[in-house]
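Quick look at the format.
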Amino acid sequence: MINSHTKLRYQRLPAQQSIRVFEAAARHLNFTLAAEELAMTQSGISKQIKALESFLNTSLFIRKGQKIYLTDMGRLFYDRCVEALDCLQHAVDEIQGQTGQLRLQAPPTFACRWLIPRMEQLHNSLPKLSLHIETTWLRSIHDHIQAETNQLVIHACINYPFNNLHAELLREESLFVMVSPSYMARHGDIDCAKDLVGKTLIHTRVDGHIHWEAWAKAMGEEALDTSKGYEFETLDMALSAAENGLGVLVCDLLFALNALRNGRLVIPFKMPIVTGLRYLLLRHLNSSYQPLQQNYRQWLQQQIHQDNQDMTAYLTELGFDNQDQRKGI
């Protein structure tokens, strides 16, 4: 049971409408402007103020000709009314999911290459949302995730076998081999999977060489030694290495789409899509932050849906007509 600060249970409070009228009149120091804001008549404003002054047994305004001023008690009451109305508005916004701080844990590449470029768009869509982003640098695909009630967690994994959090599928990776034109200019064209043998492979360190291993297995390319090559802490670093011509990378199309469109990377030959890791959105079901989380989840889903359309359009431009020939990780 929630304890009230008063035993009278708010029985001596004035009507809410009179509070709204007083706040507007005190803010404008003008009954006419207050009436226009609240869609009331000026006489209606005056009646509400008089009733409030009678209830409080004190004068709230000093009237001098055409101008009005707050009395000392009026100033005190105005300050308290603003605090109370702001608190109520904040509570309503939180319940309706329009405002508040939301903590988001996300893989560093997702934060750097996907979320940050969309922050202004997010602000325009949800202007009252305060998003605190935490990157999970050392998280592996097998981790048991812990989260606070005001946290959403974007977790990349093969599957999430634990039941401590609700898991919602956001998307699955679409893996392709990618390389810079400068690397092929120095080391020869790559026209098929066999041409990768002897090439420098690029990996991310936290999850080992899982993407190259999965891709080689899906292609049946047993001669490809996926144990060798450069290792980097994050996919973002691995992508930068590939863009700078250090080697060949297997990467999710989502994070490389801009680099592919501007020619820093290319997909060197046609290949089936290999489905990689799953990106899950993890959260507590019983949370007072559900409305706030729901608004952000809807925004995420809309953005990812648009991304899927963009990626499909790009693959169609390249002549990939076998998108249904997907091979799992």
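Next, a different chain entirely:
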Amino acid sequence: MGEQHEAYLSGYAEILAEVAGTGRRLTRDELDGRRRLGEEAAEVGHSLRTLVRGHLHATRVSWPGKAGSEGTVPNVLAAVAQAVDAFAEGYERAQRLAVRQEEAARREFIDDLLYGRSDLGRLAERAERFGLVLSRAHAVAVAEGPEPYDDTAPVTRLVETALISRFGDRRVLITTKNGHLVCIAPGDQDEILAFFAKQAYAATDGGRVAIGRAQSGPGGVVHSYEEALSTLELAERLELGEHVVRAADLLVYPVLTRDRQAMADLVLSVLGPLRDARGGAEPLLRTLEVYFDAGCTAAEAARRLSLSVRALTYRLERVHQLTGADASDPVHRYTLQTAVIGARLLGWPDEDL
């Protein structure tokens, strides 16, 4: 055992010698002293296995001469067990405290990073501790499932283990925020986020994953994160069937709703009359949505809606009668389709505009 470890054996031989002579057990102060030494050893990063081996070696070297008799051997061995146990207890206590402090620092960093509420220069310095270089571009993927997840959830550990096994140390950070799984990866390594999406989809039993665009600079992570969150919400509003959605593929929708009042006016002006239909606006709105998704092919739209082609045609004619817009006319079709998208984005007709 090297000199750097000798300090953690201070007083050990003397304790064994006194125990051999008196048969007593270690006092409270002696046990507390061994615990403190264990804590100090853990704080500077020494190996517990090496230190325990050092205690055993010191026991052999300093074995008390009087401990050879049959009566004193059990007392000395009991003292060795007490001393080593106290030392290990202190060591483990210090490790648990360090882990809690590390977890708290990591959570504070994640919160500051994803809320963008810390000084960017200081944030960049802290990021290097967790494997991120914020001067580079990063992209963020966010996964949601049927239940909220935190950093200790089995799903989180499962996904994190899969990524580490596949990519090793590639400056990837897996965490959770507000019940979502979050993956932060270098912006030029899309394969990492694609793999995360695959693993998260499987681990969350079919949850949805949104991937934000790569953004540069210290504030890039929070921008990509917010974009991924908005994409999740957008996918839910549009009732998209895809389980993995990319913000880059849905950019047209935020553009359409940038002027919310203008879109609301379009929806009410074009589709408002559908509320006068028997059964309200929803059945005809759904018919238009499926018809457009089917490439304006009546037979395919009818199949998806479990209708006959004749029934579908009747619904489209009813839309024409109520709104004055013909879904088969290219000019009218664009207006109708834009209004249908706007209705889904704004939650109409369930929500008042």
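Residues 258-346 form a domain with the Arc Repressor Mutant, subunit A fold (CATH 1.10.10.2840).

See the schema section for token definitions.
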